[in-house]
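@channel anyone free to eyeball this complex?
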Amino acid sequence: MTTSAWPEWPAGESIWSSNDRALEMAQAVLGSSDAPVGLTPKELVWRKNKARLYRYLRSEPATHKTPIFLVLPLINRSYILDLRPGASFVEFLLSQGFDVFLIDWGTPGDEDRSLDVTTLVTRYLPRAAKAIQKATGETRMTVLGYCIGGALATCFAALHPEVTRNLVLLTAPIDFADAGQFGRMTAPGIFPVEQLTDTFPVIPAQLPDIGTKLLNPLASYVGTYRQLWDKLGAENFDLRGWQAMYRWVNDSVPFAGAAFRQWIVEFYRENRLARDLLEMDGRPVRLADIRCPVLNIAASRDQIAPRPTTSVITHRVGSDDASEILVEGGHVGIVVGRTASQNLWPKVGAWLSAHD
Amino acid sequence: MTTTKQSGPGTDPFEVWREMYDANERTWSAALEQAMGSPEFGDSSGKLLETMLAAQKTVRDNMRTYLETMNVPTREDIARLGELVIGLEEKIDQVADRLDEIEEAVRAVPGGPAGPIGPSGPTGAKGPAGSVGRTGKTGRAGRPGPKGAAGPKGQAGATGPKGPAGPKGKAGTTGRARSVTSAAPAKQVVASKRAAPSKRAAPSTRARPATSTRAKPATNEPTTKDIKPVAGAR
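replying in thread with the prediction:
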């Protein structure tokens, strides 16, 4: 009883404080899966397979006539643009008087193994757009794509200029000639995409997630918690906000096998979209066919969609009205970060109002 | 944070971790970035992934063989069923697309139905003939129905007011009625063909057409054949 087999633990108040902080950190991380997200009220307008088109509810009629069609990435949950009250791009758009629709691709299962990007662009997006037309009575809409959703939106805008009033791209990779670390990771001879899609009908969500985190492994796997350590000691730390973001980052979606293969082969490796070699359902997808006003939003420190992949669109579209906003920040941070609501969103809102 | 600063290095493991990370983060990140950008890393990670995939495939194949031997549906079997459902859904979508095209074509005919008149279909919502139900439903959109009066027979206009009965219609309606570009015209054409009996029946017999459509579902089916003559007549 008098002696212990355990090594003596350093005494003092500080160690207990640190222990408390460590417990708080564990609670913050473990509790993030329940963090409330995507709270803006919405109604289901259209559905197909796992895809859902939502219309965000407004308390009063929209003051802008052109509806906004948000096209989200395939590998992330759609609530990134409606993270939580006060940090929601959707909420901002609604407050500016826009009628906002969002397509949520859902979670693909094994039965979606043959669902490719072409099908999404030619079978899903047009029908969702038609649903928006029917719901609003407006023939044309602003198509706003984020990340991979931006590439999809670009293809859609090129194939359906009659529907696209404006095209807005948020950190959307278009030209993969210099795709950075992702490009090297998915290069032929290194990344066995065929073997992967033969083995998995649906690519497990962890794989793209690991790929993203490997772009900056130390920051992803350690730095996140290191920062949290400090933030937990700060006076006005928004724990629920951190948890919502943490939840989204770790809440990836599986990638339908055929879509993944097409994304890697035709977009990354062969760079067909930027080279005007992409065809969908026998129709050529040409950037020059995009003649509507275009707003391209890029992040200066984007590792997922590096600057060379996002900078080409404004020079290649057939529109005379193509502009760009380059924001200081990373791929996700510029869209939902603290400064987004003060910096980026008002600019986007002003542009959309001017192009209503 | 203030409390952790009070303890000196070595007394608090979390403080040690923090200081170690801060001191080395840049160096380690640079080293990792350099290593991961090298062709050797790419080769070895690719081979590692290939090996893992081969192992995974072996496990999957063995499991499938085992389940098939045991007469238990495999994951692939379930997925195949799902694919069939998805394929059916796509076919339904294609039919709906085609209907939309036909409706637009009908509307485009000079002197044809002026837009959203069509959904004047009276009641009949419960009728087995889906078309009746649909037209009944779209009856809401039938408000613009009066325009239909301009039609040659003026029947559509007459039936327009009966729209309210539509809600009885099964889901059929599909919310199409809400759409501006809606399919109303085609439905209107169909409805106008049916309108005659209901007109005879007088407004007070709203419910009757439903029974009659039950009795003669086939006659109420909207077909291309139904549409052409009427459109042509206009």
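from a first look: Confidence is low (pLDDT under 50) at residues 1-8, 116-234 of chain B.
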